């Protein structure tokens, strides 16, 4: 396990401002922004079948690279294939418990199986796209005389030029994120097979699902008894489509969409499945994670004088991080217990537990 954690830490750049192995030309970058994970697979990072198990096939149509600022291009050029910082992580886990045998079998999960979870997004590229368009939206609020309850909010009518430009740029950021996770998954496969001295086929590391948790999408939902198109913005939320939905991969359609809920690095993560009640109550959405109970500053203060990595090793979890500060900010006490959160969403009926995953080895940004 120590060798595996070290290999993942070595092969996947992590931490604030980390730079990846890829150095994208402007043209490559534009193609990546249009094609997302498809670009990654076409360039040898993964297998074509991976795309079946990524939300939107790993590429959302309508991304417009011409709307991206030079600063966003510059930030994204060196960060493709990097983990980043904060709560982003790679975790080697094992399936501790199965709650829904049928769904687990369909997803390819079984008790005591070793799994890998990847949690990261569009890195500094997506952050810059957001920053650039916040200024546009702030001007739009005045232009369209929109009254907002909080000065931190900004928006524009969806069919305005400002909103449509942002929507197309946001799609480019989503595609960047899907490509990023695809590249990371490919390098994880390589690092693990090399460390264990086995073939890719013997390893059997197949993608269960890749789902976004900060994205706006146009979807059809029933509102007041009528099917209409709406813009669903899932921020800190994740999609949880029900059985039978056409956007659920065909292999999973009988049971519903896999839902990945990461917890903190010391406790657990969960795989759930989408439900019909989520379609009725929450536009096919559920929670994304545990949520903090301590700010980063409070967590650092509480960790003072402690060796968090040692505490985790004593609990049987090996951890590698770009710095001690990250471990302090991300310690278990800083988060709600994910098991309680997952119990709440299951009782609410908006997703259903399939499997509980326990961490064995962690790479933190």
Task: Walk me through this protein's architecture.
The chain has helices at residues 2-11, 26-35, 37-42, 70-77, 101-107, 123-143, 161-196, 200-203, 276-281, 296-303, 308-314, 324-329, 338-348; strands at residues 89-98, 114-119, 214-223, 226-235, 237-239, 258-261, 269-274, 285-287, 318-321, 351-364. 38% of the residues lie in helices and 19% in strands. Strands 1, 2, 6, 7, 9 and 10 form a six-stranded mixed β-sheet that branches. A two-stranded antiparallel ribbon has the order 3-4. A two-stranded antiparallel sheet has the order 5-8. Helix 2 crosses helix 7 (161-196) and helix 6 runs antiparallel to helix 7 (161-196). The chain is of the alpha+beta class and 365 residues long. The model has no long low-confidence stretch (mean pLDDT 95). The relative contact order is 0.17.
Short description:
By secondary structure, the chain is α+β, with helices and mostly antiparallel strands. It has helices at about 1-10, 25-35, 35-40, 70-75, 100-105, 125-145, 160-195, 200-205, 275-280, 295-305, 310-315, 325-330, 340-350, and strands spanning about 90-100, 115-120, 215-225, 225-235, 235-240, 260, 270-275, 285, 320, 350-365.
Question: What is the quaternary state of this protein?
Answer: single chain
Helix content class:
25-40%
Number of domains: 2
Supply the CATH superfamily name of the largest domain. Answer: tRNA-splicing ligase RtcB
Annotation field: number of helices? 13
CATH fold-level name of the largest domain: tRNA-splicing ligase RtcB
Overall form? globular
The CATH class of the largest domain turns out to be: Alpha Beta
* Unreliable spans: none
Radius of gyration: 20 Å
- In whole angstroms, the N-to-C terminal distance is 19 Å
Work out the strand percent. Answer: 15-25%
Average pLDDT for all residues: 95
Largest sheet: 6 strands, mixed
């Amino acid at each position: 396990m120590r060798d595996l954690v070290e290999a993942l830490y070595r092969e996947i750049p992590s931490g604030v401002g980390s730079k990846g192995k890829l150095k994208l030309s402007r043209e490559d970058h534009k193609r990546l922004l249009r094609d997302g994970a498809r670009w990654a697979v076409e360039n040898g990072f993964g297998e074509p079948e991976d795309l079946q198990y990524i939300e939107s096939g790993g590429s959302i149509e309508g991304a417009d690279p011409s709307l991206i600022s030079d600063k966003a291009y510059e930030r994204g050029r060196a960060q493709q294939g990097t983990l980043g910082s904060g709560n982003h992580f790679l975790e080697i886990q094992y399936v501790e418990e199965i709650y829904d045998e049928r769904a687990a079998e369909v997803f390819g999960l079984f008790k005591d199986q070793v799994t890998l979870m990847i949690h990261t997004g569009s890195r500094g590229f997506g952050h810059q796209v957001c920053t650039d368009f916040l200024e546009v939206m702030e001007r739009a609020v005045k232009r369209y005389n929109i009254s907002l309850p909080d000065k931190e909010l900004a928006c524009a009518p969806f069919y305005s030029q400002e909103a449509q430009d942002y929507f197309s740029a946001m799609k480019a950021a989503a595609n960047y994120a899907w490509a990023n996770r695809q590249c990371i998954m490919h390098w994880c496969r390589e690092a693990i097979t090399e460390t264990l001295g086995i073939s890719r086929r013997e390893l059997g590391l197949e993608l269960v699902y890749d789902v976004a948790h900060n994205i706006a999408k146009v979807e059809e939902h029933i509102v007041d008894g009528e099917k209409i198109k709406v813009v669903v913005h899932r921020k800190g939320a994740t999609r949880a489509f029900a059985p039978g939905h056409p956007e659920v991969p065909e292999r999973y359609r009988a049971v519903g969409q896999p839902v990945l809920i990461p917890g903190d690095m010391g406790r657990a993560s969960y795989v759930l499945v989408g439900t019909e009640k989520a379609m009725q109550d929450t536009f096919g959405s559920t929670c994304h994670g545990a949520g903090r109970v301590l700010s980063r500053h409070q967590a650092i203060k509480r960790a003072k004088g402690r060796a968090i990595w040692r505490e985790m090793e004593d609990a049987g979890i090996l951890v590698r991080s770009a710095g001690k500060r990250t471990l302090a900010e991300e310690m278990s006490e800083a988060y709600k217990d994910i098991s309680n959160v997952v119990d709440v969403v299951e009782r609410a009926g908006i997703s259903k537990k399939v499997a509980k995953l326990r961490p064995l080895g962690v790479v933190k940004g």
